[in-house]
């Protein structure tokens, strides 16, 4: 069940009221429902031996210029707590018991909230631990610092409508402070009321219930079995049973409705916050949208998963696009597209096939929130709900695994690309390569900590399938296809990294290497922009195992400019997979996988 924040405010209009309240909170009088074996704690005002009445009087005299009016509220008592589910999540109904760490976290947070909101106007706060659930009674003197008068109206609201609004904002503030503890705000505008303890006991001890129990007392000479059967047959008891069953059903419905209402309230608050944020940022909208449109289209194309055509440096290919970029303009020459536009927002909308709002969210994800254009005030009002949920549309979603297609993909990798069956199967079992529903080989991209954040797809269907590209949402600068081999044991630190331009190239290089005692990582990075540079700077041995084309030469040159200790390793043929297939064709001795330290 969701733990809710609880806050109530009560007016104390006379010093007699203040003294009476202190008698209860300071336990200066007997309290029937309090456990005398448990000690309460004074959080604010500890060590001050004066009465609460004297403390309030002295603060009013020192901070106000005028005598309080007869109808002035001299002090406000604020009750702070949370529902029992927070303090004892495993047994909410077990009164008088709580988790010590949770109680201390609540106490520290609530005290900080009081001090930040009311400063020295909060003259006392008592933490009660001798009742069913921990709670705080705080006393705040409502002094207006500007007018130097008592003003409950300014602090907590005057009229009924103002009071509801002020109290609602106060509850928002309190719930926001408790949110890190997992405590949420209750339903805004709820009509639920607090039942006083004495009213509860009056209901329990009411005469009709006592008379009902007396009527069911054992008769003279009646055995226990006879009494049981008579009670069972009594129509009143049967009616009570039906009522209890109805009550249980009603409570369950109420609980579900309350949970649904809490969820709806969370959505409303999130939407409210989004609209407020949009309003605050409205003054910088024009500047922000211009910043987005001025982003280099080449960099945006790369982030979108496109790759440069080394024969024509203005052209970018991938994902069924052939896009020519000239300054701030682009045109897609692919026969199925034939579309042009200008600026990074248009480019993202075109390649990702998304709307304006989703394109903004994508750019924010890749370039930082400071450059996110939130649209105009009108846009905020009309589409705030859409904007508040766009984060889910730009997240990476892994292609669905299709085990039926795996055999065909495995045949492509092991027969057409000549990769060893045992290594391909091991990578598959590790979850690093699998088949999707279109029979693509899906190479899983991960951060260096192993978090999945992308996928590289390679088409395998048909004789001349050249399809390759990145799944939507893939982070090319934060994730890579990589695996580790060699070393004496899997926990050995990586001392050597071999960089390749594709997953198949990385596997091919690993296959052709002899077993080694050096722990080696094989990592696919198809561009200098996507290197985990900080990681590589601390690796003593970095090898650049790129292909034999001019574009591979250029990639290697750029990488060596930033990683001076990296050395080039060049295949004799076009690439390393061609070299592997040539070795297999010439039937050279089979290279064995490392027998130790295997971890993919």
TrEMBL record:
SUPFAM superfamilies: Zinc beta-ribbon. This is Plasmid recombination protein. It comes from Nostoc parmelioides FACHB-3921. Residues 261-295 form a coiled coil. InterPro entries: DUF3991, Mob_Pre. Belongs to the plasmid mobilization pre family. Keywords: Coiled coil. CDD domains: MobM_relaxase. Pfam families: DUF3991, Mob_Pre. Residues 412-488 form the DUF3991 domain.
